[in-house]
Specification:
The chain has 9 helices and no strands. With about 200 residues, it is mostly helical.
Length: about 200
């Protein structure tokens, strides 16, 4: 039985999705080709039918991992109809998000790698940063302040999640998430600065 183009495309997609999960969970340096192919249910020998190199796979998987976050962010914002920004903050700074990096936001995992990475990774990372900034800015009524507030919010979300995953003390980890969530929600656009 022949191997159709549809089968090839499905296999490639499976490898990309597997690699995207690994990249979110482990970063760009750890996932090995043999392990990724095995986890995707394919042989190592078939790798070059889909990708030119490990770097090619990691670059494409990173772009997939980054892009998958937009839909999750939009859904999180829509959960709280009265205050979409608070809904987004609560979902992003949830312990479940902290504890599941393989399905979480790739901005957290890939930030340092993008900073040191090639142009393609930087561009994929930037594209996602811009998409999140636009999404967050769109939640605010005050268009004049929206851009600065979206930068502050995204920076705090990513930074708090990164630190909460990196510290050994679970109490401090929880405190980081809770404190930043509380401050971001109190600092919502339109809130008088004296309330912060």
């Amino acid at each position: 039985m022949g191997y159709s183009q549809a089968d090839k495309a499905a296999s490639r997609e499976r490898v990309l999705r597997t690699a995207a999960r690994k990249v979110r969970a482990e970063g760009v340096t750890r996932p090995g080709v043999a392990d990724l192919m095995k986890e995707a249910g394919l042989t190592h020998g078939g790798f070059y039918k889909h990708f030119t190199s490990r770097d090619d796979l990691i670059a494409q998987a990173s772009a997939v991992a980054l892009a998958e976050g937009s839909a999750k962010m939009e859904r999180a914002a829509q959960k709280n109809k009265q205050d979409p920004r608070a809904g987004l903050v609560d979902a992003y700074l949830a312990k479940q998000h902290r504890d599941a990096p393989a399905t979480g936001c790739a901005l957290v995992t890939l930030g340092a790698a993008a900073g040191r990475g090639d142009q393609h990774l930087k561009e994929a990372y930037e594209k996602q940063v811009r998409a999140y900034l636009d999404l967050i800015a769109g939640l605010d009524d005050d268009a004049e302040e929206a851009r600065a507030e979206s930068i502050l919010t995204l920076s705090a979300l990513v930074g708090a999640t990164l630190m909460s995953r990196a510290v050994a003390d679970s109490g401090l980890s929880d405190e980081l998430l809770e404190a930043v969530a509380g401050r971001l929600k109190r600092h919502a656009p339109g809130t008088p600065s004296s309330a912060v």
